[in-house]
From TrEMBL:
Pfam families: SMI1_KNR4
Domain named Knr4/Smi1-like: residues: 31-158
InterPro entries xref list: Knr4/Smi1-like_dom (IPR018958), Knr4/Smi1-like_sf (IPR037883)
The name this protein goes by in its record: SMI1/KNR4 family protein
């Protein structure tokens, strides 16, 4: 397993592990290169977190087939089924969550559709890149701004859940947090996201 997460500098162990993972996938998309990433970052007022940034610059900018089920998206794309009725994605706005939020388990009073969208909309649209979808409205997000920068979250119609172990909590999706840990988890074929090692 890969060691602790550093979102500013790519750990050589993470880079080596990602190179090995993507080398096993002949459908990997060519890396985007430094210039394309810098232009995207400048347009959106962000810096992609490591080791994801190194991956898309030097190793691979996605997978045509899964994982996720419908493939790992190139860094500047969204799934075809994304966006119907959604507001503009604001990558520079901080991602609003720090812990799992299952909408139906929320103790707040009953919210109107408009109030619910006002609270939930930023979870979908602020501070994250879409990594891909497993279908049925299940989207993997890489958080690019805010206190969760570098973490991967699964966000769907039921709620938002962070991937990986967290101090003092029992994780809903155990594993090494961050993009490299998430990639290592899906590279170990046949393992459920929700089961312990």
């Amino acid at each position: 397993m890969m060691c602790g997460m550093n979102t500013d500098t790519c750990d050589p162990a993470d880079s080596a592990a990602l190179r090995e993972i993507f080398a096993a996938h002949p459908d990997a998309v060519e890396p985007a290169g430094e210039e394309a990433v810098k232009v995207f970052e400048a347009e959106h007022g962000i810096v992609l977190p490591e080791p994801y940034r190194t991956c898309v610059v030097e190793i691979a900018d996605g997978l045509r087939a899964g994982p996720p089920y419908y493939g790992l998206l190139p860094f500047a794309r969204t799934p075809r089924d994304w966006g119907a009725g959604r507001t503009e994605r604001l990558l520079a706005e901080p991602f609003p969550l720090t812990r799992a939020w299952l909408w139906e388990q929320d103790d707040d009073e009953e919210l109107s559709d408009e109030e619910f969208e006002e609270r939930v909309g930023p979870v979908y649209d602020h501070g994250s890149l879409l990594l891909g979808t497993d279908g049925c409205g299940m989207y993997w997000h890489l958080i690019v701004t805010g206190s969760e920068r570098g973490h991967v979250w699964l966000i769907d119609e039921n709620g938002a859940i962070p991937f990986g172990d967290r101090p003092g909590t029992t994780p809903l999706m155990p594993g090494t947090p961050g993009f490299a840990g998430w990639a290592a988890r899906w590279a170990a074929r046949g393992r459920s996201w929700f089961e312990d090692d």
